């Protein structure tokens, strides 16, 4: 009887969690969304602006020192059960130099992993998020080797918000790891890289569940998109069709270079009004229209927003047509679409950040986009964290 009460008390204790590369708090929001009984005992991020946002929303400022300076003794003192990590993705992106573990931005992540066996209380669980491409890097190889020799069993995923009904194409790599004797509910998937929701749904036949957009033929991708909500459901400004042609004027405050960069005087914008600051100037449409990804309120998919959104127009995220022409094809003039950028709140919505998430007033528009571009999808991470923490003791 006494032992039963003691066990209940232990189970009632919140998991102690360390949040590395905490950014604007995507991991913490995902824990909350997942309903995990957890306490973030410390967060770590070197970005001062990101920490301003984190502190504004959670009332706690992350540790801002260099993560590489942390020792095993430092980490052991937290007595954390789980480490959540979203290390820099630049060493693995297609646009980057792809130096992988040779990139200085990968050093701190590898350093943290190397500390695990030397801490007084190694974590029971690890969660790692990064871009697609990480899974083929030498950093990934080293991570798997370190976790293997420190008695962890892993399940890996490549998943996209599209698989969770969110019209946002942002496939990402995830590693879930548990230290033995802890096990996953579906051990049949141990040490596998999956593109499906099978384990999260309790389905041991992953081939019959919703697969990721990356590996599916067009017919299956179309079926995947059918289950997504329209972009309109995520918009902050839904009645924008009354924007007049006069809003789409070119001025000397906007200019482009050879990469389609928008240099706009945010203090003396070429438009007035809340929505008008997101209007795409005609000079950009005329020069870069063929390279733009254009979506509509009834679209079921938009491209991934990067940290350079609103600054560059090529390959940084979709633009919204606020006036929908009769024919959505190249024969209609892009000027007729009345294009605008998604607002930071709308990008936050597509990342599934909660309604009460806010930026401090001093954070500029460009900084907001940059921080969101480095964030993660809560719609994807929350069910993965729920699965990771389930059944652990």
From TrEMBL:
GO BP field: methylation
One cellular component (GO) term of this entry: nucleus
PROSITE patterns: SAM_MT_C5
GO molecular function annotations of the record: methyltransferase activity
Keyword Transferase recorded: yes
Regions annotated as coiled coil: none
Assigned keywords, A-Z: Methyltransferase, S-adenosyl-L-methionine, Transferase
Keyword Transferase tagged: yes
Family from the record: Belongs to the class I-like SAM-binding methyltransferase superfamily. C5-methyltransferase family.
Name listed for the protein in its UniProt record: tRNA (Cytosine(38)-C(5))-methyltransferase-like
Lineage of origin: Eukaryota, Viridiplantae, Streptophyta, Embryophyta, Tracheophyta
């Amino acid at each position: 009887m006494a032992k039963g009460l003691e066990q209940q008390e232990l189970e009632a204790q919140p998991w102690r969690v360390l949040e590395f590369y905490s950014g604007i708090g995507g991991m913490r929001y995902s824990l909350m969304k997942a309903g995990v009984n957890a306490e973030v005992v410390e967060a770590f991020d070197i970005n001062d602006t990101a920490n301003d946002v984190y502190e504004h929303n959670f009332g706690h400022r992350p540790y801002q020192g260099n993560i590489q300076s942390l020792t095993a003794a430092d980490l052991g003192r937290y007595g954390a059960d789980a480490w959540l990590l979203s290390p820099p993705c630049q060493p693995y992106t297609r646009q980057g130099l792809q130096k992988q573990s040779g990139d200085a931005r990968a050093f701190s992540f590898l350093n943290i992993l190397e500390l695990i066996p030397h801490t007084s209380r190694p974590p029971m669980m690890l969660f790692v998020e990064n871009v697609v491409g990480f899974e083929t890097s030498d950093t990934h190889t080293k991570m798997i080797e370190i976790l293997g020799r420190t008695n962890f069993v892993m399940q890996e995923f490549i998943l996209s918000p599209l698989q969770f009904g969110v019209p946002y194409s942002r496939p990402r790599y995830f590693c879930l790891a548990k230290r033995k004797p802890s096990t996953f509910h579906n051990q049949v998937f141990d040490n596998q890289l999956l593109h499906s929701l099978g384990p999260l749904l309790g389905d041991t036949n992953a081939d019959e569940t919703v697969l990721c957009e990356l590996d599916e033929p067009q017919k299956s991708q179309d079926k995947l998109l059918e289950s997504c909500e329209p972009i309109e459901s995520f918009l902050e400004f839904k009645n924008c069709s009354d924007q007049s042609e006069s809003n789409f004027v070119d001025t000397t405050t906007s200019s482009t270079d050879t990469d389609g960069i928008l240099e706009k005087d945010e203090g003396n914008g070429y438009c007035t009004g809340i929505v008008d600051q997101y209007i795409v100037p005609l000079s950009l449409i005329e020069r870069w229209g063929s390279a733009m990804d254009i979506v509509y309120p009834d679209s079921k998919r938009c491209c991934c927003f990067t940290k350079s959104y609103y600054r560059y127009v090529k390959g940084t995220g979709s633009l919204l047509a606020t006036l929908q022409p009769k024919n959505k094809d190249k024969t209609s003039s892009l000027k007729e679409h009345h294009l605008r950028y998604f607002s930071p709140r709308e990008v936050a919505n597509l990342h599934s950040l909660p309604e009460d998430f806010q930026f401090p007033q001093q954070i500029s528009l460009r900084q907001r986009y940059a921080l969101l571009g480095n964030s993660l999808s809560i719609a994807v991470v929350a069910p993965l964290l729920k699965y990771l923490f389930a059944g652990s003791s």
